Structures are given as structure tokens and as C-alpha cells.
Amino acid sequence: MGSRPDSAEGVYLDDAVQIAAKILVVGHFAVGKTTFIGTMSEIPPLRTEEQMTQAGAHVDDLAGVRGKTTTTVAMDFGRITLSSKLVLYLFGTPGQERFVQVWEDMTRGALGALILVDPERLKESFPVIDLVEQYGLPYAISVNHFDDTPVRPDSELREALDLLPETPIVTCDARDQKSSADALIALVRYLQTRTDRSTT
């Protein structure tokens, strides 16, 4: 996997690419979606962040969140080439409930979703999981590991989130390219497995 370009070089797709897939990167407020897409994108990511102000304190709960000064107000966008034939377009959605109206447009044409969760704030993931299921998107869970956060067993997380046995659950650090790539690969493999089942 190449490093991200510093300029427009490499922005255009190679002619060998056969599949370009739209993937949503979703999760509750301040779970690391913007960081994840910024880490993974091989092109300069599109970000729509605004400075957080005191006016939003009553709707943006910062309990358990450290160092959060900006928030996404529309979407994040990035692109990652996983192989010579497969490119993923990553679309990040805002995590606050007041931005739910953007989901209808964002989910159109998406093949699946990677749901980032904070193991210390699992309850905040339920509305996001419900929305993804409501739109019929297959998904994988990626537990974003924050500094000083204790590691919880997958079995405990699976039970707490009420996941189906086949739903992938992986751990990543949204700041780390390799673990973030592994999370996307787990989702792609799951999507491929579902496709294979439906065609047999």
C-alpha cells in the first residue's frame, strides 16, 4: 500500500482497476471517523469540519471525550486502493443525531458500512447500528482503540452490541494505517462472502 500523495499526483485511477466500491465509515460522535479516513486516504481527504463552540454544548456530549475541538458537519471523503483491481471510496457521516437526514443520500449506492465503536461508550453505538440495519447495509464492527482504554474480549463486545454471529468484529487504531486497513479488508471479505452465498 503506497503512502498518500502530497499533491494531485496519483489522484486518477489506474486503468487496471475493475471495481470501485462505496463504503460508509460511520459511528457515534467523536469515535474517530475523520481520523480513520484521513489515515487511510491515498488522496488528500475532503473534510467538512467546523470548530465546536459553547453554543453546541447542550447537544454535543463531550463526556468521556478528550481533545475534541472540531466536528464534522457534512461528510468526510477519501479513497484507498486495496489491490490493483479494487478501490474503495470512503464516505464518513457526522455522528450527531441532528445530521441523520444526510443518511438517505449517503447510503445510496453503498455496498456496506464500517461501524467504528468506542468500547467505553458502547451505548452510543446502538442508534448508528440501528440506522445501518434500517438501510439494509451489511456491516462490520471496528473497535477503535483509544489510549488508556482497556481491551475487552470480542465475545463481550459482541454480546453487548447484540451482533449476529457472522458479523465481523475487529480492533483498530484509527491513527494507524495497518490496523485500519485490516478493518476495511475484514469488511470487504465479509461482503464477498455474502455475495458468494447469494450466487450459489
Attribute tags:
alpha/beta, Gpn, two-stranded antiparallel sheet, GTP binding, Rossmann fold, hydrolase activity, 200 residues, 8 strands, 26% helix, 5 helices
Taken from the alpha-carbon principal axes, the silhouette is globular
CATH hierarchy class name:
Alpha Beta
The rounded Rg comes to 17 Å
Assign the structural class, choosing from mainly alpha, mainly beta, alpha/beta, alpha+beta, or little secondary structure. alpha/beta
The CATH architecture category equals 3-Layer(aba) Sandwich
CATH superfamily: P-loop containing nucleotide triphosphate hydrolases
Domain count: the total is: 1
Strand share of the residues? Answer: 15-25%
Classify the helix fraction into a percent range.
Answer: 25-40%
Mean pLDDT: 83
Number of helices: 5
Distance between the termini: 32 Å
Report strand order across the widest sheet.
4-5-1-6-7-8
CATH fold topology? Rossmann fold
pLDDT < 50 stretches: 1-10
Count of β-strands:
8
Order of SSEs: EHEEEEHEHEHEH
GO molecular function: GTP binding; hydrolase activity
Family: Belongs to the GPN-loop GTPase family.
Pfam families: ATP_bind_1
Keywords: GTP-binding, Hydrolase, Nucleotide-binding
Task: Give an account of the 3D structure.
With 200 residues, the chain is of the alpha/beta class. It has one domain: Rossmann fold (3-Layer(aba) Sandwich). Helices cover 26% and strands 23% of the residues. The chain contains five helices and eight strands; from the N terminus they run βαββββαβαβαβα. The chain has helices at 33-40, 103-107, 126-134, 154-160, 177-198, and strands at 19-27, 49-51, 70-72, 76-81, 86-92, 110-117, 139-144, 169-172. The radius of gyration is 17 Å and the shape is globular. The chain starts with 18 loop residues before the first strand and ends with a helix.
